[in-house]
Amino acid sequence: MNVAYRLAIALVLGGSGFVGSALAQAGRPGTEEFGLTEKELVQSVEKVEALIADCMRKQGFEYVPADFRTIHRGMIADKAMPGMDESEFVEQYGFGIATLYTGQAPQLNEGYCPGRIGLGEQNIEIFKKLSSADQAAYNRTLLGENIDATFAVSLEAENFSRCGGCTLKAIQQVFKPEQIRATYVNPLTEIINKDPRMKAALRKYAESMREAGFDYNHPDEVDVDVKKRLDTILGGGAPPLDKLSSEQLSSLKKLQEYERKVAKLSTKLQKELFDPIEEQIEKEMYARQVK
Amino acid sequence: MVASPFGKRSVMSKSRVITLCLILAIVLAAAGGAWLAGQGIVSPAEAAARTAPPTPSPILVPVEKRVLSSEIVTRGTARFGTPLAIALAPSLLKSNSAELITTLPLVNTQIKEGDVVFTASGRPVLALQGKAPAYRDFTPGTSGDDVRQLEQALQRLGFDPGEVDGVYDNKTGAGVAAWYRAKGFEPFGPTPEQQAKARVLEAALGDAIKNKLLATTAAAGAELAVKNARTKASLGERTAKADVSTKIADQALIALDPKSLQMARIAADAKVSIAQAAVESAKLEGEVAVRSAVEAQKVAQFDVQLTGEREQQARAEWQNTVRKIGVSVPLDELVFVPVLPVRVEQVMGVVGSSSNGPILSVTDNQIVIDSSLPLDKAALVKPGMEVSIDEPSLGLKAQGVVDQVAATPGTRGVDGYHFYFAVRVAETPTQLQGFSLRLTLPIKSTAGAVLAVPVSALSLAADGTSRVQVSKDGALNYVTVEPGMAAEGFVEVKPKSGSLEPGQMVVIGNDFIESLNRAEKQP
């Protein structure tokens, strides 16, 4: 759409009060992950999955591209357990990072495992039929070093920095380089974070966290930090629980306690401080005036 | 008077100018209105032309010269050959059947022919190549195919077993002894128990011989006793009968004598009767004596037979024992393995524990990769086909050949939608066992580099011929081609009309998006 056309629309709609809204909408980010629109998200997911399948095939593995519904199910599976709402989950398991760590491949994990859902049942069945050596190679080829960082989970977390293997290769072909960096922030979040109300809320959040003994300035830092701490304990890779030394198990137990506490407080503050403001800002950004 | 034409004209021209201006304004207004109205009027042709897609620009790609090959890419896990469990059977040469494991090899230890696999109760367990398993002790005198297998193995190892005839003789024993000593062990000779047993059996044999002699002597005596009894019985009977004759003669004399008294006659008769009774008695006594002697003889003869059998049995036992007192190979000291060398795959036994049950498993050194093929690809893979093996992330690389392809899907642990197939890896210094490896099987390949274009560059002409559209100096021309093998999104082409060179640009499609962008940019 060229400028003259936009201007014409603006002149035509001038009296209706729609001008501001239309112009604002022209530059606003999408509401989905990575600032994508719903359509863009679906297209990106389909492209990534097709590229993953192609990459896996070249490595000699069968991989059935997961459809958007499957990926979406994997995305919403985070902090969700049957018979439990999110607050109950957080109360019991924190973020479910260290507390529910098993070291098992997501395909073989029968318990809480968001990564498993987003892989799709067909791929899980393919994986289960492989020998243990092939299973290890399959996940190394598909996911790289961090076998929990599946596409669906990483997409939901808006963090592709832990992805590897064919998943990362496919993501690199579809997403922009800045979206893959660990420092990436969703443009919508960025806009919201720049809002004075949100800035004040973030200050309040950081103060409250510090009062409780946690040094975090933003809620997004918390689960990333828990993951880092877990990686440090495990010393790279994802060894099964029965392969961990007593020192590692002891450190893991401490981290689980830490995760529960910090997740509980962070989630509580998020709900109290950010949710109302975010809701208000989004309403202001995306609301349409109805004549 | 003449009116100033100028002044009159001046008045007139003013009104005319105004009129003209008005007319012009009206004309302009009408023209403007018409123009504006004309802007809104669009003929169907003009509308169609405006809404028609812009002329697309062609997407060009270069003609390539490349080797085309279609391939199947799959995965598999490398392993050594099928594991063979090694267990010990108890030896009859050893009284103590419960052997204890004293040493065990480490996993991956290479076992060659003649090597000591492990030791049990300080004795070696040696490996020889042979298809038939060991099932009995090898002792002097034994014969059969298993002995031949042992002799052949000794010959291969350079320990002379004598003639390879399937008979364990002294030379075989000597070969075995040399083999044992070369491995640092004493050969299995007669044990103190065996020697003591041989002495006991020897003494038993002597006793048996003595008993047999005694029985034979007793039998001979019994025979004489029978003869004596018969003679005695005969003599007694004859004596009694002679007495009867005498008495009868006396009776006749008395009867013929007229002077004899009645009493004398009666007495003579009585004497005859008594003598006749004595004959019967002597006969009976003789018969009893003979019968007793015969019975005694029978007992003696049975004793001879029994002691004879005992002597034979004792002799056989002694001979059997003595025969085994030589260099032997106990059953629990020898393992025949179909192919050697082998490597230790797994050690199940524990040092110090009993040697019962499987102690270790061995595999051959041939690396095999187990894999599977989808149903549609299985028919393309045949035994003997070359396979490229690699694992890019680990830097592993090797070559192999397809060893076997299952005849039916769903065998050897693969699901019903796949066929099992195995790849035999060519000798490689790389450790591949246990790794997941990528297997690439080239199904078909062009003979060298050929002219190739993307499949999308190929189109069909109205006459059914294949063609590509070549861009040259801004013009697009069709070149008729003969398509060949297609793989990796490319197709081999041979020009039939015109020329086609590597690097020439061919059309694979039209860039509508680019055209649209260009159209949008145009004023």
CATH architecture of the domain at 193-324 in chain B: Orthogonal Bundle
CATH topology of the domain at 193-324 in chain B: Helix Hairpins
Number of domains of chain A: 3
Percent strand of chain B equals: 25-35%
What's the oligomerization state? heterodimer
Biggest interface pair, residues each?
A-B, 17 and 20 residues
What is the N-to-C order of secondary-structure elements of chain A (H for helix, E for strand)? Answer: HHHHHHHHHHHHHHH
Uncertain stretches of chain A? 1-26
Percent in helix of chain A? 55-70%
Helix- and strand-based class of chain B?
A: alpha+beta
The largest sheet of chain B is: 8 strands, antiparallel
- Estimate the global geometry of chain B from the Cα principal axes: rod-shaped
The separation of the N and C termini of chain A measures 25 Å
Mean pLDDT of chain A: 83
Q: Radius of gyration of chain B, rounded? A: 61 Å
Report on the biggest sheet of chain A: none
Shape of chain A: globular
**CATH hierarchy class name of the domain at 193-324 in chain B:** Mainly Alpha
How would the blueprint of this fold be written?
The complex is a heterodimer of chains A (291) and B (523).
Chain A: H1 3-12, H2 19-27, H3 38-58, H4 68-76, H5 86-93, H6 114-119, H7 121-128, H8 132-143, H9 151-157, H10 165-174, H11 177-180, H12 187-194, H13 196-211, H14 219-234, H15 246-286
Helix pairs in contact in A: 3-10, 4-9, 5-15, 8-10, 13-15, 14-15
Chain B: H1 5-40, H2 44-51, E1 57-62, E2 64-66, E3 69-80, E4 84-87, E5 101-103, E6 110-111, E7 116-120, E8 123-129, H3 145-157, H4 170-182, H5 192-256, H6 262-324, E9 334-337, E10 342-347, E11 358-364, E12 367-374, H7 375-378, E13 386-391, E14 396-405, E15 418-425, E16 436-445, E17 450-454, E18 459-460, E19 466-472, E20 475-487, E21 490-495, E22 505-511, H8 512-521
Parallel strand pairs in B: 8-9
Antiparallel strand pairs in B: 1-22, 2-17, 3-12, 3-16, 4-11, 5-7, 6-10, 7-8, 10-11, 12-15, 13-14, 13-16, 14-15, 17-21, 18-19, 19-20, 19-22, 20-21
Helix pairs in contact in B: 5-6
